[in-house]
TrEMBL record:
Originating organism: Streptomyces pakalii
Main localization category: membrane
Keywords: Cytoplasmic vesicle, Endosome, Membrane, Synapse, Transmembrane, Transmembrane helix, Zinc
Domain Cation efflux protein transmembrane: residue ranges: 26-201
The protein's name: Cation transporter
Lineage, top ranks: Bacteria, Bacillati, Actinomycetota, Actinomycetes, Kitasatosporales
Pfam family, one: Cation_efflux
Sequence intervals crossing the membrane: 20-44, 50-73, 85-103, 118-138, 159-180
Record-stated family: Belongs to the TMEM163 family.
Length: 224
């Protein structure tokens, strides 16, 4: 008679929790550096896009810190109990990011200020575009396997940072090469829409999948 698995074994669950803690620590460390560089470059170049990107990094740190707090607990039951609070923090971070990006994009389209070219901004955007997808994918896989909606939600915010990096990079290059200052805020409005969607899903506890006896099924979060 075949015994169906109900999910990761306790040893595997502990290994996944350690992996998530390491990935979250790496995300926090990189985003702190990214925030400092982007905010400095944005101030020097009077670039609202770079300043917004730097503030996004600050929000990403708060989201990652919420997951780090959840997985700092060694007991699986304690981590589950912290899931609701972690998801709420991540959801609010998404919505705050969406609000800021939308307002900043509208201001830029209205012609408030004119950013100067920023080689430093181009470098940090390119680095983020190269690094963030790997961190996001690794954390998403571990979060789905262990059945943590908060870890998956945080990985989506890291992926959103990748999209913002691409938007920022294109905007900075077009501004430097052709003076097309409208390109970045138009794309940023689309990113804001994605952030609202992800924020709502995180608030509802959606987006997490883990193995069950019937195969791959969506793991229900304690959030209602």
């Amino acid at each position: 008679m075949t015994t169906l698995s109900l999910g990761p074994s306790p040893a595997r669950r502990d290994a996944l929790a350690r992996r998530i803690r390491l990935l979250v620590a790496a995300t926090i460390a990189y985003n702190v550096i990214e925030a400092v560089v982007a905010l400095t470059a944005g101030t020097l170049a009077s670039s609202s896009a770079l300043i917004g990107f730097g503030l996004d990094s600050v929000i990403e740190v708060s989201s990652a810190a919420a997951v780090a707090w959840q997985f700092s607990a060694r007991e699986h039951t304690v981590r589950e109990a912290r899931e609701r609070t972690a998801l709420r923090i991540i959801a609010v971070s998404f919505l705050a990011l969406a609000a800021y990006v939308a307002v900043d994009a509208v201001r830029a389209l209205a012609g408030t200020g004119e950013a100067e070219p920023s080689p430093l901004g181009i470098v940090i955007a390119a680095l983020s575009l190269a690094i963030m997808p790997f961190l996001s994918a690794a954390q998403r896989r571990a979060g789905r396997e262990i059945g943590s909606a908060s870890a998956v939600a945080d990985s989506k915010q890291t992926l959103l940072c990748t999209y913002l990096s691409a938007v920022l990079l294109v905007g900075l290059i077009l501004n430097a090469a052709f003076g097309w200052s409208w390109a970045d805020p138009v794309a940023a409005l689309a990113i804001a829409g994605v952030a609202v969607k992800e924020g709502r899903e995180a608030w509802r506890g959606k987006g997490c999948c883990a193995p069950t006896a019937q195969g791959q099924a969506c793991a229900k979060s304690p959030v209602r």
